[in-house]
Design brief:
Elements: H1 6-11, H2 17-23, E1 27-31, E2 40-43, H3 45-51, H4 55-58, H5 63-66, H6 77-92, E3 96-97, E4 101-102, E5 105-106, E6 115-116, E7 119-128, E8 134-143, H7 145-152, H8 156-217, H9 223-254, E9 261-263, H10 266-275, H11 278-283, E10 287-292, E11 300-301, H12 303-319, E12 325-333, E13 336-343, H13 377-387, E14 391-397, E15 401-409, E16 420-421, H14 431-444, E17 463-467, H15 471-481, E18 486-490, H16 493-502, E19 507-511, H17 519-527, E20 537-541, H18 546-555, E21 559-562, H19 567-626, H20 633-664, E22 670-673, H21 674-688, E23 695-698, E24 703-706, H22 708-725, E25 733-741, E26 744-751, H23 783-793, E27 798-802, E28 808-812, H24 816-822
Parallel strand pairs: 9-16, 10-12, 17-18, 17-19, 19-20, 20-21, 23-25
Antiparallel strand pairs: 1-2, 1-8, 3-7, 4-7, 5-6, 7-8, 9-11, 12-13, 13-15, 14-15, 22-24, 25-26, 26-28, 27-28
């Protein structure tokens, strides 16, 4: 197919989409969401034809003015139903379908006047702008009058309409009541924010003023006191910023925001505001590009509010940009001035972009310099831009960056005349407002008070690792503990995990809310690793209450501190946990020594018992085989029982000796093909049991690094165990395979046999522990204990799952290469 050239394309007739809409076959009416009027801005030709109206007679009028309801409808249900539908569309911003509605059409005088009975099937679609606001409502209707009249003959449709109308009426009443309750709650919330914000400002003023005075009076030698007071003042500034944001929101919601718009050199003001971030941005190895052109047309802004818009946007960009650049651009765009703040940061997921300007909304799992924040900043930007008669838009791609675009009109015609100032002030940014943002940004890039890196204990002090994304909190905690402990401080859970894996720490203190990896994920990762399962962990959180404490303890935390906490409380908790850890380590060491002594005793006793047992079994066989005439039948049975008991005792002693040897022997690492071992064991089982119906499923690519003989013993015990417990089935099946769980290879032996009750799973791997009777399934109760010992010596884990009558699955890991490298 030949495509038209560019010149040919330019000669094609231009398409007028409004004309296409007008002549289309669908009954459409386009309304503005300007309740209660709902102005008509467009209608298709077929809509006009069906409703007997002319376009010039209805466009620009309210829908209920252009189409007045039938005065004989004394209930007003027709108009009320449509108003309720429009309200739902504006509230939910979603497609809305109405039941069949009666809405009569006025007749012309030539037709005799009055109203013509008509029935419609209406649907309403919201038309949204880039910020998610409803800018139009598209009403589509189908004329179902004739169909309704046909069904009305037998009364079915009439009853249905009456029923649906009653349901809609009741739903509308409930909606009105719910809206009234929401409005009241919203008012109470707004009043609460306003009152609490005002109340906070008084004590903050009484703290910040005296603190600033104290700092100015300190001598050069009082550096420590100065640092403490500066930390207090800096965090008071941050709290004041949060209070001011809440206060601004409460004023906006209540319609009490006092804004005065003045002509402003917006290029210079915006450039100055952006430049205040330069040192913090460059210290983080980022590039700041500021390109604010001089504007030819006058632009009116509320100076203080514009500062909040710019500072919030740049602060947000810095928070979520870990490498690359931030670009601030101000330029003319037709009748608008456009501000864009673009970054090369972590970006926003596509499903979150529509919610980004919602108050208190925060993108979960986002990667930033800190997890701190209230979700107010961008929502405040959106509201302030609207008050300037402008729009706020966001474009973003996950992992590539985000651009916020603000557009406000030139001039002052769009603003209330009483709010426009004719006085031109000097161009000075609010130092206090900028300072709060800059102080916060500086703390995001502040170095930890103790150098990061591998733990290097002096041998006299215990080493504590502190993880918190708030630099002031890291500094506070490390200063409290520095006298008694060695400290290393990091800014997130990932850095903490890397440090822990290097080894040498005696305690972890971790905040819960952190970027990259939070405290809960860090804790789960530590507790899943055998090497660090006993590391004491104290979690810090702003969540108060027993429920919060219980949830963290269930995850494996040793202790939990709620902010704010006292210095004495923190020091006491750290001291207690380190002492408990030392006591646990000593008890484990004593237990290990006792276990070794017990094993040595068991080895000696077992070895010494083998000789008399062999003699007992041997002489018993001689009696039966060489001197049968000297015994009665009853005597022969008793001798046979002695021989069987001796053989069983010998098997038990051999198992104990094997278990003891496993604990003592050196592991010899080499490549081990578990698949081949499993296949050999399967062949041996089937050869020894020619009538067996067992179906074996063995995966072919199971290779590990470990001790070949010991790992063969693992599979031998597990496969023999599975064969034993499926022996009574009609269709026994045993699977030997591998699966990946959270990046870790997990091997398993699964059967469909007798299974076990999970409440007894803790007994499975204990020595001499049995869940089935000797007469039902024979065994020594040592096999699974041997398996566990071998797997643990390879640095792995073993566990089981099962259900009575539904089989059992034994899982194990073999990180042999990692253990070999550590050795």
């Amino acid at each position: 197919m030949n495509m038209p050239t560019q010149d040919a394309t330019e000669r094609l007739p231009k398409v007028c989409y409004e004309d296409l809409f007008n002549v289309g076959p669908i009954l459409y009416l386009i309304l503005l969401p300007d309740a209660p009027k709902f102005t008509i801005v467009g209608a298709s030709d077929i809509y006009l034809e069906n409703t007997k109206r002319r376009r010039e007679d209805i466009v620009g009028k309210g829908v209920f003015e252009a189409f007045p309801p039938n005065p004989n409808d004394t209930t007003g249900s027709s108009e009320n139903n449509f108003r309720a539908a429009f309200a739902r569309v504006m509230e939910t911003r979603k497609f809305d379908v109405m039941p069949i509605q009666q809405y009569d059409i006025p007749r012309s005088e030539a037709e005799g006047g009055g109203f013509e009975e008509r029935y419609w099937s209406p649907t309403h679609t919201p038309v949204l702008d880039s910020s998610g606001n409803v800018v139009q409502i598209a009403q589509r209707v189908e004329d179902v009058t004739e169909l309704f009249r046909l069904k009305k003959l037998n009364g079915q449709m009439e009853n249905e309409v009456m029923l649906r109308s009653q349901e809609i009426k009741e739903a509308n009443n409930k909606l009105v009541q719910a809206n009234d309750r929401l409005k009241e709650l919203d008012r109470l919330k707004t009043d609460f924010f306003a009152n609490i914000s005002h109340e906070f400002r008084t004590p903050l003023t009484l703290i910040m003023g005296p603190v600033a005075d104290l700092i100015s009076t300190l001598d050069p030698g009082q550096e420590n006191s100065k640092n403490i007071l500066e930390t207090v003042h800096r965090n008071c500034l941050r709290l004041l910023k949060l209070v001011n944001n809440l206060l601004d929101f409460s004023k906006l919601e209540a319609g009490r925001a006092k804004m005065f718009f003045e002509v402003t050199d917006l290029g210079t003001l915006t450039s100055d505001l952006a430049s205040t971030f330069r040192s913090a941005i460059e210290r983080a190895s980022l590039k700041l590009i500021v390109n604010c052109e001089a504007l030819r047309n006058p632009v009116y802004v509320d100076r203080e509010m514009w500062e909040k818009i710019v500072l919030n946007l740049i602060s947000n960009a810095f928070k979520y940009t870990l490498k690359g650049e931030i670009c601030v651009t101000l330029k003319s765009d037709g009748n608008f001035v456009e501000l864009s703040v673009a970054d090369t940061g972590t970006g926003i997921p596509e499903n979150e972009i529509g919610k980004i300007f919602e108050r208190f909304h925060r993108v979960q799992g986002s990667q930033g310099r800190t997890h701190e924040g209230t979700g107010i900043g961008l929502a405040l930007v959106h509201e302030l831009v609207k008050l300037h008669g402008g729009t706020a838009e966001v474009k973003s791609r996950l992992g590539q960056g985000t651009t916020f675009i603000i557009r406000i009109p030139f001039g002052s015609a769009h603003l209330s005349a009483e709010r426009v100032s004719k006085v031109v002030r000097s161009l000075e940014a609010s130092e206090g407002q900028s300072r709060a943002f800059i102080e916060e940004a500086n703390r995001w890039t502040a170095d930890s008070p103790v150098a990061k890196g591998p733990a290097a204990s002096s041998g006299t002090k215990k080493h504590v690792l502190v993880a918190d994304d708030n630099a002031d909190m890291r500094e506070y905690v490390t200063k409290l503990l520095a006298e008694k402990y060695e400290l290393t401080a990091v800014a997130n859970g990932k850095e903490a995990l890397d440090a822990i894996r290097q080894g040498g720490y005696d305690l972890l203190i971790s905040d819960i809310m952190m970027p990259v990896m939070d405290g809960n994920e860090l804790l789960r990762t530590i507790r899943a690793d055998r090497k660090f399962q006993n590391l004491p962990v104290i979690l810090l959180s702003a969540r108060a209450g027993e429920e919060a404490r219980a949830s963290e303890v269930q995850l494996g935390a040793d202790d939990y501190l709620t902010k704010p906490f006292s210095a004495t409380e923190l020091i006491s908790r750290v001291h207690t946990q380190i002492n408990l850890s030392q006591m646990r380590a000593k008890l484990l060491k004593d237990l290990e020594n006792a276990n070794q002594e017990l094993e040595s005793f068991s080895y000696s006793v077992s070895h010494d018992l083998r000789s008399p047992l062999r003699s007992m079994v041997g002489f018993g066989k001689i009696l039966l085989e060489e001197h049968p005439e000297s015994q009665s039948e009853e005597g022969k049975k008793l001798v046979q029982r002695i021989i069987q008991a001796g053989q069983r005792m010998g098997l038990l002693i051999d198992s104990l000796l094997s278990l003891s040897k496993i604990s003592r022997s050196q592991i010899h690492f080499s490549p081990v093909n578990l698949s081949k071992i499993a296949q050999t064991l399967r062949d041996e089982i089937l050869e020894a049991n020619p009538g067996a119906k067992t179906h074996f499923i063995i995966r072919a690519d199971m290779e590990v690094s470990g001790d070949p003989q010991l790992l063969e013993l693992v599979l031998q015990n597990l496969i023999n165990n599975a064969f034993k417990f499926t022996s009574k089935l009609e269709a026994p099946e045993i699977q030997i395979g591998i699966q990946e769980v959270n990046g870790e290879k997990v091997y398993f032996v699964k059967d469909n046999g007798a299974g076990f009750d999970m409440q007894y799973v803790g007994k499975l791997f204990g020595t001499f522990q049995r869940l089935h009777s000797e007469t039902e399934f024979a065994g020594t109760g040592i096999g699974l204990a041997t398996v566990r010992r071998i797997i643990h010596r390879h640095g792995g884990r073993i566990w089981a799952e099962g259900a009575i009558g539904k089989g059992a699955t034994f899982f194990f890991t073999v990180p042999g290469l990692e253990l070999k490298n550590l050795q």
